[in-house]
C-alpha cells in the first residue's frame, strides 16, 4: 500500500518570507520543549506550506558524544506523533562549537 494513498488532499497555506506556518511553529515549540539546551532550532516547511514535509536543523549540547543516527533518533522520538502526518522529514543535527 502506498503511503500517499491514505493521506487526504492537502491544501497549501500562503506564506511570506518573514512568517512561519502554523506547522513550523508547532514543530519548533515541541523541539524547544524536548531539547531545552538547543542553541539553534530551525524548522522549514519544504512542502510549500502544506505541512507534509519539513527540514529541521538543531544544534544542541544534548547531541554531544552521540552518533548522527542516535541524534536523528532523538529528533524522531520527540516528533513521534507529528511524523505520522508527514510525508517526509530532513534532519540536520550538530553540537555547538565552543
Automatic annotation (TrEMBL):
SUPFAM superfamilies: BolA-like (SSF82657)
Main localization, broad class: mitochondrion
Alphabetically ordered keywords of this record: Mitochondrion
Compartment annotation: Mitochondrion
A GO cellular component annotation in the UniProt record: mitochondrial matrix
Pfam families the record matches: BolA
Domain of life: Eukaryota
Keyword Mitochondrion found: yes
Role summary: Acts as a mitochondrial iron-sulfur (Fe-S) cluster assembly factor that facilitates (Fe-S) cluster insertion into a subset of mitochondrial proteins. Probably acts together with NFU1.
Family stated for the protein in its record: Belongs to the BolA/IbaG family.
Subunit structure: Interacts with NFU1.
Protein's name according to its UniProt entry: BolA-like protein 3
Gene: BOLA3
Amino acid at each position: 500500500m502506498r503511503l500517499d494513498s491514505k493521506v487526504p488532499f492537502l491544501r497549501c497555506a500562503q506564506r511570506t518570507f518573514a512568517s512561519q506556518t502554523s506547522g513550523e511553529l508547532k514543530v519548533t515549540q515541541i523541539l524547544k520543549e524536548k531539547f531545552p539546551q538547543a542553541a539553534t532550532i530551525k524548522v522549514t516547511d519544504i512542502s510549500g506550506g502544506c505541512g507534509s514535509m519539513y527540514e529541521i536543523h538543531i544544534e544542541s549540547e544534548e547531541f554531544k558524544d552521540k552518533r548522527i543516527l542516535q541524534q536523528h533518533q532523538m529528533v524522531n522520538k520527540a516528533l513521534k506523533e507529528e511524523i505520522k502526518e508527514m510525508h517526509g522529514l530532513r534532519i540536520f543535527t550538530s553540537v555547538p562549537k565552543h
